[in-house]
């Protein structure tokens, strides 16, 4: 029989105010992530354990790999191309021009190269903000932008099913993980429905990723955990607790994508809270250890 145990390790101690958007870069064995209010994009080399960073001129909420090399990022209300070598950001498109208090939040690239990202009003405190100000957009490979819907509170986690026929999406303050039918040819979404409603102790759904079995992993802000969901049955399959409360997002990475990386926030925790969770703002690695028992 096989039993699995989980090991959780803080690979980079609390240096993020609001860590987000973990992305594994296979070519360099590195984890990319952002610290939104610190306006930093970071790249942590898992072999040397060194961190390189690039500072931009507005809150940076997501980063993604660009096929032609370099990265793309959502900075303020702009989709930008990043050049790591000369530390420059080139604006590709701007959204929400009429909403001065808005910024982008979570973003991810679909299998056809469209960069999906949603916006939100700037928070006055975690999860405190003017409601219904956000929208969901995508930047197409030809750099035109399409808007899908508005009235979003906190546009957050997103990913696609393994067959690319479903788009999963979280608007945090709906406390729901939603699904849409997805047309990879056109980038159109339709038929919105909820596949999971968070339980009270799970708190606020934030970043999300999909695993090799098509199950969803959702980071629960204030819940100090990532949860594994079966979007077909609407059941929670697993809960992995972390030693920090403000878990924001997760992605797979490492050798054969066998590890999970989790980001979290330090902002919004009082001094006593920080004594209880000194690693808040760190980067965590979750490792599954399989024990093969014979007999
Ligand atoms: O990480 C993010 O996605 C937001 O930018 C954060 O501000 C939190 O998620 C939010 O406060 C809780 O929903
Ligand atoms: Zn988020």
Describe the structure.
The protein has one helix and 24 strands. By secondary structure, it is mostly beta strands. The strands form six sheets. The chain has a four-stranded antiparallel beta sheet, with no helix packed on it. A hairpin with a 5-residue loop joins strand 12 (134-139) and strand 13. The structure holds D-gluconic acid and zinc ion. D-gluconic acid binds next to strand 10 and strand 18. Residues 18-265 form the SMP-30/Gluconolactonase/LRE-like region domain. Monomer. This is Regucalcin. It is found in: Cytoplasm.
Task: Give a brief description.
By secondary structure, the protein is mainly β. Helices cover 2% and strands 57% of the residues.
SSE layout:
Layout: E1 2-12, E2 19-25, E3 30-35, E4 40-45, E5 51-55, E6 60-65, E7 71-75, E8 78-83, E9 88-94, E10 102-109, E11 115-121, E12 134-139, E13 145-152, E14 155-160, E15 166-171, E16 176-183, E17 188-197, E18 204-210, E19 216-221, E20 225-230, E21 235-241, E22 247-253, E23 259-264, H1 271-276, E24 283-292
Antiparallel strand pairs: 1-24, 2-3, 3-4, 4-5, 6-7, 7-8, 8-9, 10-11, 11-12, 12-13, 14-15, 15-16, 16-17, 18-19, 19-20, 20-21, 22-23, 23-24
Zinc ion binds next to strand 10, strand 18 and strand 22.
Bound molecules: D-gluconic acid, zinc ion
User: What is the number of beta strands?
Assistant: 24
- Spans with pLDDT under 50 lasting ≥5 residues? none
Briefly note the structural class of the backbone.
Answer: mainly beta
């Amino acid at each position: 029989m096989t039993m699995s145990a989980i090991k959780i390790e803080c690979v980079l101690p609390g240096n993020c105010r609001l860590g987000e958007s973990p992305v594994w870069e296979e070519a360099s064995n590195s984890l990319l992530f952002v610290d939104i209010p610190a306006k930093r994009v970071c790249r942590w080399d898992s072999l040397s354990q060194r961190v390189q960073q690039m500072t931009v001129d507005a809150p940076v909420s997501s980063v993604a790999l660009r096929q032609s090399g370099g990265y793309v990022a959502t900075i303020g209300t702009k989709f930008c191309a990043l050049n790591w070598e000369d530390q420059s950001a080139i604006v590709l498109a701007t959204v929400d021009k009429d909403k001065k208090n808005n910024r982008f939040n979570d973003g991810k690239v679909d299998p056809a190269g469209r960069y999906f990202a949603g916006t939100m009003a700037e928070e006055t405190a975690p999860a405190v903000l003017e409601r219904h100000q956000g929208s969901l957009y995508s930047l197409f490979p030809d750099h035109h932008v399409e808007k899908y819907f508005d009235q979003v509170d906190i546009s957050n986690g997103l990913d696609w099913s393994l067959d690319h026929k479903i788009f999963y999406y979280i608007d945090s303050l709906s406390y729901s993980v939603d699904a849409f039918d997805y047309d990879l040819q056109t980038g159109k979404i339709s038929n919105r429905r909820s596949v999971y409603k968070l339980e009270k102790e799970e708190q606020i759904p934030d970043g999300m990723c999909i695993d090799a079995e098509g199950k969803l992993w959702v980071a629960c802000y204030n819940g100090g955990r990532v949860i594994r969901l079966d979007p077909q049955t609407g059941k929670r399959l697993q809960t992995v607790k972390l030693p920090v409360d403000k878990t924001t997002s997760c992605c797979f990475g490492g050798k054969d994508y066998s590890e999970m990386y989790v980001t979290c926030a330090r902002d919004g925790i009082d001094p006593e809270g920080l004594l209880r969770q000194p690693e808040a703002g760190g980067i965590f690695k979750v490792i599954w250890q399989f024990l093969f028992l014979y007999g």
